[in-house]
Amino acid sequence: MVTEPERAKAAVEALIYRAALLLDAEKFADWLALCAPDFTYRIETYSPEIRKRMTWLQHDVKGLRTMIEMLPRHNTDHGQLSRHVSVYTVEIAEDGSAAAAVSSFLCHRTMLDGINAHLDAGETQLFLAGKYYDRFRLDDARPLFIDRTVFLDTRRLDKGSHYPI
Asked: In this structure, what are the phi and psi dihedrals at residue 77, rounded to the nearest 5 degrees?
């Protein structure tokens, strides 16, 4: 027998994987539709050189929408990003109204046109590695993202890094 917390956990995991597929397909508006109106998004890392945590990007839904609208105007390397996500933990609040998850991700970049100085067309490389720290609002066990912190292990980014990770 499947319990409500188990259903909620499965729904959260499914949402995380669906988000990755939408980001891979560059369906950013559809990805934003998975987010609550009060959603916040951050990209952070830790710098051992300065011994501090750094925030590289922080937006609410309005800021993300504006950033996404500007993507066609950015200089990119025409690489295709592909995310591999593994959900480590999903914790459901006792009252069933919220959840939190931690996932690991690897983001690969495949060059489409070979104009990048160090990659040929069709070549794939590891682009980013890190973790997602997500929080969700559950409504009838239907989750919506309310917060995502992308914590990067990778600290050297190339062109294309302005896309949501």
From this structure: -95, 5
Q: How many structural domains is the chain composed of?
A: 1
CB 125 within 8 A of CB 109: yes
Residue with tokens 């710098």: 47
**In a 10 Å sphere around its CB, with 0-12 CB exposed, 13-18 middle and 19+ buried, how is residue 150 labelled?**
buried
End-to-end CA separation in angstroms for the chain: 36
- Return the closest-CA partner of residue 145 out of 103, 98, 107: 98
* Strand, coil or helix: 109: strand
What CATH number has the domain bearing residue 133?
3.10.450.50
Q: Is residue 84 part of a domain?
A: yes
Neighbours of 34 (CB within 10 A): 16
Which class for 104: exposed (0-12), middle (13-18), buried (19 or more C-beta within 10 A)?
middle
The answer to whether position 162 is within a domain reads no
Contact 42, 119 (CB under 8 A): no
What is d(CA 141, CA 97) in angstroms, rounded to the nearest whole number?
A: 8
pTM strictly above 0.85: yes
* Residues of the chain scoring pLDDT < 50: none
Give the integer Cα–Cα distance in Å for 80 and 85: 16
